[in-house]
């Protein structure tokens, strides 16, 4: 299998929440994370990719960062219906 499909539990929890990896490791060690219905306390557990991970009773989903694009308009393009010089 791909190495990309295998990911450690601490990294997955950090990417699905606003926690850092260190904070995610502490939360996992406290036993607050449930993987496939079993409390998991090992932050280095390798996930296959099909597991369901719950934190405080909520299913964790990957946070997809928003992408912003900036475009420059050509010099001759007008933004209004008519310009001051009636072009």
How is this structure best described in words?
This protein has 87 residues and is α+β, with helices and mostly antiparallel strands. Helix content is 21%, strand content 16%. The chain has helices at residues 9-16, 21-30, and strands at 7-8, 33-35, 38-39, 46-47, 53-55, 58-59. Helix 1 packs across helix 2. It is rod-shaped, with a radius of gyration of 23 Å. The strands form 2 sheets. Strands 3-2-5-6 form a 4-stranded antiparallel sheet. The chain has a two-stranded antiparallel sheet with strand order 1-4.
Any chance you could write out the topology, listing elements then pairs?
Layout: E1 7-8, H1 9-16, H2 21-30, E2 33-35, E3 38-39, E4 46-47, E5 53-55, E6 58-59
Antiparallel strand pairs: 1-4, 2-3, 2-5, 5-6
Helix pairs in contact: 1-2
Quick overview:
Helix content is 21%, strand content 16%.
- Cα(first) to Cα(last) distance is 62 Å
Tally of DSSP helical segments:
2
Number of strands: 6
Radius of gyration: 23 Å
Strand order of the largest sheet: 3-2-5-6
Q: What percent of residues adopt helix (DSSP H or I)?
A: 10-25%
Q: How would you name the oligomeric state of the polypeptide chains in this document?
A: single chain
Shape: rod-shaped
Order of helices and strands, N to C? Answer: EHHEEEEE
Main β sheet profile? 4 strands, antiparallel
Contiguous low-pLDDT stretches (5 residues minimum) are none
- Beta-strand portion reads 15-25%
Mean pLDDT across all residues, rounded?
Answer: 85
Q: Indicate the structural class.
A: alpha+beta
